[in-house]
Amino acid sequence: MFDFDALSQAIVRQTVLCVGDVMLDEFVYGEVSRISPEAPAPVIAARRSEINVGGAGNVARNIASLGARCIFVGLVGNDAAGETLKSELAKESLIEPVLVTDPARPTTRKVRFVSEHFSTHMLRADWELSAPASEVTERKLIDAVVSALPRADIVLLSDYAKGVLTARVIRNIIDAARKLGKRVIVDPKSANLAIYRGATLLTPNRKEFAEATRRRIQSDADIADASIEALRTADAEAILVTQSEDGMTLAHRDGSLIHVPAQPAKVRDVSGAGDTVAAVLAVTLAAGTDWDTSLRCATAAAAVAVSKPGTATVSLAELRRKILPHASLAAEEKIASSAAGLDAQLAEWRRQGLRVGFTNGCFDILHPGHVRVVTQARAACDRLIVGLNSDASVRRLKGAERPVQDERARAEVLAALEAVDLVVIFEQDTPLELITQIKPSVLVKGGDYTREQVVGHEIVAANGGEVVLVDILPGHSTTSLVKRARENKA
C-alpha cells in the first residue's frame, strides 16, 4: 500500500547505480510511397531523424526522468557515436556518466527506419561488436562500479549481451554489492541464470525465461513450476517474467506468486519498454515499496512508454496520471448515477483486467482517518469504489441530527479525492447489496474491525478476493468532531 505523493518524494532521494551496454539509437522517420526500381525494396522518403541514448543508457535516462539520481557505468568506442553518447549523457543533470573507452571496439549504434504513416519499423541497421570486453576493459569497468557502490541505494544491471556484463564483471559487482548490503536487479540476456547468482531480482521476458528454464511457458502455473529450479540456480529472491500485453508475473522464493495485468495502451512503439520497467522497479524498490506496488508502477510506466514513438522515457507526472487516471475528472463525473452505469463501468474495468477495490462509510465530516483508509484502499487495487450511506441510512445509524452534510455534498467531497475512482450512494444500512453487485477483488475497512466483522467478507472470499484492514488514526472521529463543535457553539 502506498501514497503516490509520498512515494514520489522518496524516489527523488534515491541513487541507482546502473551498469550495462549503452548504445546510440537513431530513428529516421519518413513516408513510403513507392518501390525502388533498382530492387524489390520500399523507398522511404526521409523527413526527420532523432537521436536517443539507448540500451542501458535508456534505463539511466528513465531513472533520471523519474527524479532519482543515476550513476551510469558503460562502454563506448573511440568514435563519433561514442562522442555523441558522451555529449547526450552530459546534458542529463541527474545522470553521472562513467564511460570506459575501448579503442578496439565500435560504439554500438542502431538506426531504425520508420514509416510515420503506418507507424511501423521498415528496417534496422546495426553497427556493433557483440563480444566480451577484454580483460583490461573488464578491470576498468569493475573498478568504476566498486568505487561508486557506496553512494548507491540499489544496483541495476542492464544486459544487452554487447560485451559489458561479462561473467567476471557480473560476479564482481554482485559480490561487492552483497557485501555492502545493496540489492541487485538484473535485466538478463544470458540463458545461464547461474552467472547472475546472488542477485535480488531477475527480470527476463517470457521468451528469455523459457530458454533459460528449457520449459514451455504459457501460464502463471508454468512460471511457478519453472521458477522453483530457476530461483535455486540463481540464488535469487525473486524472478519477474514480463509478458508484454499479458502483464507480468513475479515468483518469490517463499512460494508466493504475484500477477499484475498490463494496463491498456495505444501501442506506437515498444522500443525500450523493458528499460522503463527495469528503471521503475529499481527506483520504487529503492524507495521502500513492496513487490506488488513496484510491479503496478512498472506496468503503468510500460503502458506510457509504448504509447510514445522511439526510445521513450516516463516522468513521475506521467506515471501519476496513469496510476490515478480519474484524479483529473470533475467530482460529479466520479459519482455513479445509476446501477446500470455502475455495471457498465465495472464491465469496462474488468475487460481491462483491472483489480477493483471497495470501501464504505458515512464520511459525514471528512477527516484524516477517512483519508488514510481511502488512500490505502486505493493502493491495494487498480480502481477504487467508495460506497456512501445515503442521508436516510445515516439517520437510522447515527440519529436524527445526522448527517451534518447531505449525501450529495458528502459524495462530491469524496469524489474530489484523487484516490477515489467512483462514489456510489446506497440506501441500505449496510453495503451488502452493493458488494454483491460489485464483487470487488479487494474489500477494505479500518483496523477497528476484525475480518469476520467486515460486512461482505464472505462474498469477497467466495470470489477469490481479499479483505484488507487498515490501521486507523487514533483521535479522529466524526462523532467526536460534531460533539465538540456543538459544545463550542453552546
UniProtKB/TrEMBL annotation:
<comment type="pathway">
    <text>Nucleotide-sugar biosynthesis; ADP-L-glycero-beta-D-manno-heptose biosynthesis; ADP-L-glycero-beta-D-manno-heptose from D-glycero-beta-D-manno-heptose 7-phosphate: step 3/4.</text>
</comment>
<keyword id="KW-0119">Carbohydrate metabolism</keyword>
<keyword id="KW-0511">Multifunctional enzyme</keyword>
<dbReference type="GO" id="GO:0033785">
    <property type="term" value="F:heptose 7-phosphate kinase activity"/>
</dbReference>
<dbReference type="InterPro" id="IPR011611">
    <property type="entry name" value="PfkB_dom"/>
</dbReference>
<keyword id="KW-0808">Transferase</keyword>
<keyword id="KW-0067">ATP-binding</keyword>
<feature type="binding site">
    <location>
        <begin position="205"/>
        <end position="208"/>
    </location>
    <ligand>
        <name>ATP</name>
    </ligand>
</feature>
<dbReference type="GO" id="GO:0097171">
    <property type="term" value="P:ADP-L-glycero-beta-D-manno-heptose biosynthetic process"/>
</dbReference>
<feature type="region of interest" description="Ribokinase">
    <location>
        <begin position="1"/>
        <end position="329"/>
    </location>
</feature>
<comment type="similarity">
    <text>In the N-terminal section; belongs to the carbohydrate kinase PfkB family.</text>
</comment>
<comment type="similarity">
    <text>In the C-terminal section; belongs to the cytidylyltransferase family.</text>
</comment>
<feature type="domain" description="Cytidyltransferase-like">
    <location>
        <begin position="358"/>
        <end position="452"/>
    </location>
</feature>
<keyword id="KW-0548">Nucleotidyltransferase</keyword>
<keyword id="KW-0418">Kinase</keyword>
<feature type="domain" description="Carbohydrate kinase PfkB">
    <location>
        <begin position="15"/>
        <end position="313"/>
    </location>
</feature>
<dbReference type="InterPro" id="IPR004821">
    <property type="entry name" value="Cyt_trans-like"/>
</dbReference>
<dbReference type="InterPro" id="IPR011913">
    <property type="entry name" value="RfaE_dom_I"/>
</dbReference>
<comment type="pathway">
    <text>Nucleotide-sugar biosynthesis; ADP-L-glycero-beta-D-manno-heptose biosynthesis; ADP-L-glycero-beta-D-manno-heptose from D-glycero-beta-D-manno-heptose 7-phosphate: step 1/4.</text>
</comment>
<feature type="active site">
    <location>
        <position position="275"/>
    </location>
</feature>
<dbReference type="InterPro" id="IPR014729">
    <property type="entry name" value="Rossmann-like_a/b/a_fold"/>
</dbReference>
<dbReference type="Pfam" id="PF01467">
    <property type="entry name" value="CTP_transf_like"/>
</dbReference>
<dbReference type="InterPro" id="IPR023030">
    <property type="entry name" value="Bifunc_HldE"/>
</dbReference>
<dbReference type="InterPro" id="IPR002173">
    <property type="entry name" value="Carboh/pur_kinase_PfkB_CS"/>
</dbReference>
<dbReference type="GO" id="GO:0009244">
    <property type="term" value="P:lipopolysaccharide core region biosynthetic process"/>
</dbReference>
<keyword id="KW-0547">Nucleotide-binding</keyword>
<dbReference type="GO" id="GO:0005524">
    <property type="term" value="F:ATP binding"/>
</dbReference>
<dbReference type="InterPro" id="IPR029056">
    <property type="entry name" value="Ribokinase-like"/>
</dbReference>
<dbReference type="GO" id="GO:0033786">
    <property type="term" value="F:heptose-1-phosphate adenylyltransferase activity"/>
</dbReference>
<protein>
    <recommendedName>
        <fullName>Bifunctional protein HldE</fullName>
        <ecNumber>2.7.1.167</ecNumber>
        <ecNumber>2.7.7.70</ecNumber>
    </recommendedName>
</protein>
<comment type="function">
    <text>Catalyzes the ADP transfer from ATP to D-glycero-beta-D-manno-heptose 1-phosphate, yielding ADP-D-glycero-beta-D-manno-heptose.</text>
</comment>
<dbReference type="GO" id="GO:0005829">
    <property type="term" value="C:cytosol"/>
</dbReference>
<dbReference type="GO" id="GO:0016773">
    <property type="term" value="F:phosphotransferase activity, alcohol group as acceptor"/>
</dbReference>
<dbReference type="Pfam" id="PF00294">
    <property type="entry name" value="PfkB"/>
</dbReference>
<dbReference type="InterPro" id="IPR011914">
    <property type="entry name" value="RfaE_dom_II"/>
</dbReference>
<feature type="region of interest" description="Cytidylyltransferase">
    <location>
        <begin position="358"/>
        <end position="490"/>
    </location>
</feature>
<comment type="subunit">
    <text>Homodimer.</text>
</comment>
